[in-house]
Write a structure and sequence with these properties.
mainly alpha; two-stranded antiparallel ribbon; elongated
């Protein structure tokens, strides 16, 4: 007995009025733009930096059997995780900082929480794309090393 759970027509699902293919294309385009910027500020309050650790660099070198798309998605995921850590630090600082009025504090905190929500959504999207790409890689056999 097998049970299948899913959407009968996944291509018809839209997020914010955009198809999954459009969202994936936008995500890849923004990742490419980030790579070209090489750490420059892209938007107010959002900074990208290449902060790969030595272990991450070794992982990239040893994963030559991964597809290019998988490598790009892993890199984008690391960037988003770093951005999320920075935003969480900003939130903690904003919560500890004194403000002239309670409304000012609420506005500042809600602004940062909105940025965190956006980053979390982007991270979830990249994670979903990575899972699809890894499943595609494993089903095509490209992860199998046939050398003796």
């Amino acid at each position: 007995m097998s049970i299948s759970i899913g959407f009968p027509n996944a291509a018809a699902i839209t997020i914010g009025g955009k198809s999954a293919a459009t969202l994936n294309a936008l995500s890849e385009a923004s990742a490419d733009a980030a790579d070209e910027a090489l750490g420059e500020t892209q938007a107010p309050g959002k900074v990208r930096a290449n902060l790969a650790t030595e272990a991450e660099s070794k992982t990239e070198k040893s994963d030559s059997d991964q597809s290019i798309a998988t490598k790009i998605l892993l890199k984008r995921m690391q960037e988003l995780q770093q951005q999320l850590r920075e935003q969480q630090q900003q939130l903690a600082a904003a919560q500890a900082r004194p403000y002239p009025t309670p409304d000012a504090k609420t506005t500042a905190i809600l602004s940062i929480q909105g940025q965190i929500a956006d980053t979390t959504g982007a991270l979830q999207q990249v994670t979903g794309s990575l899972i699809k790409e890894l499943a595609k890689d494993s089903s095509s056999g490209s992860l199998v090393n046939t050398t003796a």
